[in-house]
Design goal:
Elements lengths: L8 E4 L5 H8 L4 H8 L8 E8 L2 E11 L9 E9 L9 H12 L6 E4 L8 H5 L25
Length: about 150
């Protein structure tokens, strides 16, 4: 396993990262990931990032710029879909990601960050970077094609 104290690199994901990202998500096909990462298919305000250690992609995450209706509100980012390669679990890399967010995107100064985490977890890095619980998230799942949902109850 890699040295837990070695600095990790955070960068924008490219099409060449598709296989590594697909391996972390373990669903769909690589071609779907290639399509999402293709520059001409970019979704406005959504960016995909990877974390590298010695040139190998060890983790990936998504950032979305959230529009604000309130005129005095700071710009906001939503961070989600954090995935890590199983063999790198236990390697500390999240501090590097949050430091990168602070240094390169102004999070904590010019921007706010909302980070989604599983319901039963409060990652310690959240507290180290002075994050606090803010919102409760509810998910409205999409029905499978051809399925009708009953909302009457």
């Amino acid at each position: 396993m890699a040295d837990a104290y070695q600095k990790k690199t955070v960068r924008a994901a490219t099409v060449s990262d598709a296989v590594a990202i697909h391996e972390m998500h373990r669903c769909g096909v690589v071609a779907d990931v290639v399509e999402r990462l293709a520059p001409d298919r970019a979704v406005p305000g959504t960016t995909f990032h990877v974390v590298e250690l010695d040139g190998e992609v060890i983790a990936a995450f998504t950032l979305v710029e959230l529009g604000r209706m309130r005129p005095t509100g700071l710009p906001r980012l939503l961070m989600y879909e954090m995935r890590i390669r199983p063999r790198f679990r236990g390697v500390d890399f999240v501090d590097d990601v949050f430091t990168w967010l602070e240094e390169h995107l102004g999070v904590g100064r010019e921007r706010e960050l909302l980070a989604l985490a599983p319901m039963d977890q409060s990652p310690s890095v959240f507290y180290r970077f002075a994050m606090s619980p803010s919102h409760q998230v509810f998910k409205w799942a999409a029905a499978e094609s051809g399925t009708t949902l009953d909302y009457s109850s």
